[in-house]
Amino acid sequence: MALIFISQTRINSANYFLASDNLRLLGWMVGVRAPRSLWVIVVAALAYVLMLTDVLSYLLQALAWQGVLVTGWVAIAIVHIVVAGRTAGERATGTAWAVAAWCISSMAGIALLVLGSGVGAQVAPVVTVVSAAGVYGIGIIAGRYRGRTAVGGGDGNPAGP
Protein backbone atom coordinates (compact mmCIF):
# COMPACT_ATOMS: atom_id res chain seq x y z
CA MET A 1 0.00 0.00 0.00
CA ALA A 2 2.85 2.36 0.82
CA LEU A 3 4.46 1.69 -2.56
CA ILE A 4 1.24 2.64 -4.36
CA PHE A 5 0.89 5.82 -2.30
CA ILE A 6 4.50 6.83 -2.93
CA SER A 7 4.41 6.13 -6.67
CA GLN A 8 1.07 7.91 -7.19
CA THR A 9 2.23 10.93 -5.18
CA ARG A 10 5.38 11.11 -7.27
CA ILE A 11 3.50 10.83 -10.56
CA ASN A 12 0.87 13.40 -9.55
CA SER A 13 3.55 15.82 -8.36
CA ALA A 14 5.31 15.55 -11.70
CA ASN A 15 2.01 16.09 -13.53
CA TYR A 16 1.22 19.21 -11.49
CA PHE A 17 4.72 20.54 -12.05
CA LEU A 18 4.54 20.05 -15.82
CA ALA A 19 0.99 21.38 -16.05
CA SER A 20 1.83 24.52 -14.07
CA ASP A 21 5.00 25.05 -16.10
CA ASN A 22 3.13 24.67 -19.39
CA LEU A 23 0.41 27.04 -18.20
CA ARG A 24 3.08 29.53 -17.08
CA LEU A 25 4.68 29.40 -20.54
CA LEU A 26 1.28 29.84 -22.16
CA GLY A 27 0.70 32.85 -19.93
CA TRP A 28 4.04 34.33 -20.97
CA MET A 29 3.10 33.86 -24.64
CA VAL A 30 -0.04 35.95 -24.16
CA GLY A 31 1.71 38.48 -21.92
CA VAL A 32 0.62 37.33 -18.44
CA ARG A 33 3.46 37.29 -15.90
CA ALA A 34 2.63 35.60 -12.60
CA PRO A 35 4.52 33.60 -9.96
CA ARG A 36 4.61 29.83 -10.17
CA SER A 37 2.47 29.47 -7.05
CA LEU A 38 -0.41 31.19 -8.85
CA TRP A 39 -0.07 28.84 -11.82
CA VAL A 40 -0.10 25.84 -9.46
CA ILE A 41 -3.33 27.13 -7.90
CA VAL A 42 -4.85 27.65 -11.37
CA VAL A 43 -3.86 24.12 -12.41
CA ALA A 44 -5.31 22.69 -9.20
CA ALA A 45 -8.58 24.56 -9.80
CA LEU A 46 -8.74 23.34 -13.40
CA ALA A 47 -8.06 19.77 -12.29
CA TYR A 48 -10.81 20.04 -9.69
CA VAL A 49 -13.31 21.38 -12.24
CA LEU A 50 -12.42 18.56 -14.61
CA MET A 51 -12.94 16.04 -11.82
CA LEU A 52 -16.42 17.46 -11.22
CA THR A 53 -17.36 16.89 -14.86
CA ASP A 54 -17.89 13.41 -16.19
CA VAL A 55 -14.83 13.40 -18.43
CA LEU A 56 -14.49 9.63 -18.43
CA SER A 57 -17.93 9.09 -19.96
CA TYR A 58 -17.03 11.48 -22.79
CA LEU A 59 -13.76 9.63 -23.33
CA LEU A 60 -15.53 6.28 -23.34
CA GLN A 61 -18.06 7.53 -25.86
CA ALA A 62 -15.31 8.94 -28.09
CA LEU A 63 -13.42 5.63 -27.91
CA ALA A 64 -16.57 3.69 -28.78
CA TRP A 65 -17.14 5.91 -31.83
CA GLN A 66 -13.50 5.53 -32.81
CA GLY A 67 -13.83 1.75 -32.47
CA VAL A 68 -16.78 1.77 -34.86
CA LEU A 69 -14.91 3.92 -37.40
CA VAL A 70 -11.74 1.84 -37.23
CA THR A 71 -13.46 -1.56 -37.42
CA GLY A 72 -15.41 -0.42 -40.47
CA TRP A 73 -12.28 0.76 -42.24
CA VAL A 74 -10.36 -2.41 -41.37
CA ALA A 75 -13.19 -4.53 -42.77
CA ILE A 76 -13.05 -2.54 -46.02
CA ALA A 77 -9.28 -2.96 -46.21
CA ILE A 78 -9.53 -6.73 -45.70
CA VAL A 79 -12.25 -7.09 -48.34
CA HIS A 80 -10.17 -5.00 -50.72
CA ILE A 81 -7.14 -7.22 -50.21
CA VAL A 82 -9.17 -10.39 -50.67
CA VAL A 83 -11.55 -9.37 -53.48
CA ALA A 84 -10.24 -6.38 -55.37
CA GLY A 85 -7.18 -6.17 -57.55
CA ARG A 86 -4.17 -3.97 -57.07
CA THR A 87 -3.84 -1.81 -60.18
CA ALA A 88 -4.10 1.97 -60.07
CA GLY A 89 -7.42 2.00 -61.92
CA GLU A 90 -8.87 -0.50 -59.50
CA ARG A 91 -7.82 1.57 -56.52
CA ALA A 92 -9.20 4.79 -58.00
CA THR A 93 -12.68 3.45 -58.64
CA GLY A 94 -12.79 1.26 -55.58
CA THR A 95 -12.28 4.32 -53.42
CA ALA A 96 -15.82 5.53 -54.10
CA TRP A 97 -17.22 2.19 -52.94
CA ALA A 98 -14.92 2.21 -49.93
CA VAL A 99 -16.00 5.67 -48.83
CA ALA A 100 -19.66 4.81 -49.34
CA ALA A 101 -19.30 1.57 -47.39
CA TRP A 102 -17.41 3.34 -44.61
CA CYS A 103 -20.01 6.11 -44.29
CA ILE A 104 -22.97 3.71 -44.32
CA SER A 105 -21.42 1.27 -41.86
CA SER A 106 -20.16 4.02 -39.56
CA MET A 107 -23.58 5.67 -39.45
CA ALA A 108 -25.17 2.34 -38.61
CA GLY A 109 -22.63 1.59 -35.89
CA ILE A 110 -22.82 5.04 -34.33
CA ALA A 111 -26.62 4.93 -34.45
CA LEU A 112 -26.51 1.67 -32.54
CA LEU A 113 -24.15 3.22 -30.00
CA VAL A 114 -26.26 6.32 -29.52
CA LEU A 115 -29.76 4.89 -29.77
CA GLY A 116 -29.18 1.34 -28.66
CA SER A 117 -29.29 -0.06 -25.21
CA GLY A 118 -26.47 -2.12 -23.75
CA VAL A 119 -26.97 -4.83 -26.36
CA GLY A 120 -26.98 -2.31 -29.22
CA ALA A 121 -23.71 -0.85 -28.03
CA GLN A 122 -22.19 -4.33 -27.73
CA VAL A 123 -23.06 -5.38 -31.28
CA ALA A 124 -22.24 -2.01 -32.93
CA PRO A 125 -18.69 -2.98 -34.00
CA VAL A 126 -19.91 -6.31 -35.37
CA VAL A 127 -22.70 -4.62 -37.34
CA THR A 128 -20.16 -2.11 -38.61
CA VAL A 129 -17.80 -4.83 -39.83
CA VAL A 130 -20.54 -6.84 -41.51
CA SER A 131 -22.15 -3.84 -43.19
CA ALA A 132 -18.82 -2.33 -44.32
CA ALA A 133 -17.59 -5.60 -45.76
CA GLY A 134 -20.96 -6.32 -47.31
CA VAL A 135 -21.45 -2.95 -48.99
CA TYR A 136 -17.89 -2.78 -50.27
CA GLY A 137 -17.83 -6.40 -51.41
CA ILE A 138 -21.16 -6.05 -53.21
CA GLY A 139 -19.98 -2.83 -54.84
CA ILE A 140 -16.76 -4.39 -56.08
CA ILE A 141 -18.44 -7.56 -57.31
CA ALA A 142 -21.25 -5.60 -58.97
CA GLY A 143 -18.63 -3.42 -60.61
CA ARG A 144 -16.86 -6.47 -61.97
CA TYR A 145 -20.12 -7.77 -63.33
CA ARG A 146 -20.97 -4.46 -64.96
CA GLY A 147 -17.36 -3.96 -66.05
CA ARG A 148 -17.09 -0.33 -64.98
CA THR A 149 -15.51 -0.15 -61.53
CA ALA A 150 -12.44 -0.85 -59.60
CA VAL A 151 -11.78 -4.30 -60.87
CA GLY A 152 -12.40 -3.81 -64.55
CA GLY A 153 -14.37 -5.88 -66.97
CA GLY A 154 -12.48 -9.11 -66.59
CA ASP A 155 -10.52 -8.53 -69.78
CA GLY A 156 -7.37 -7.30 -68.04
CA ASN A 157 -8.30 -3.67 -68.56
CA PRO A 158 -8.75 -2.05 -65.13
CA ALA A 159 -10.89 0.74 -66.56
CA GLY A 160 -13.43 -1.67 -67.99
CA PRO A 161 -14.59 -2.07 -71.60
Describe this structure in words.
The chain is mainly alpha-helical. The protein folds into two domains: 2-52, no CATH class; 55-146, no CATH class. 81% of the residues lie in helices and 0% in strands. It has helices at residues 2-29, 36-52, 55-83, 88-115, 118-146. The longest helix has 29 residues, at 55-83. The relative contact order is 0.10.
Task: Briefly summarize what is shown.
With 161 residues, the protein is an all-alpha fold. The protein contains five helices and no strands. It has helices spanning 2-29, 36-52, 55-83, 88-115, 118-146.
Strand content: under 5%
**Number of H- or I-type helical stretches:** 5
Total beta strand runs: 0
Radius of gyration: 25 Å
Overall morphology: elongated
Assign the structural class, choosing from mainly alpha, mainly beta, alpha/beta, alpha+beta, or little secondary structure: mainly alpha
Largest sheet, strands/sense/barrel = none
Please state the average pLDDT score.
Answer: 83
Number of domains: 2
Oligomer: single chain
What is the percent of helical residues? Answer: over 70%
User: Order of helices and strands, N to C?
Assistant: HHHHH
- Unreliable stretches (pLDDT < 50, length at least 5) are 149-161
> What distance separates the N and C termini?
73 Å
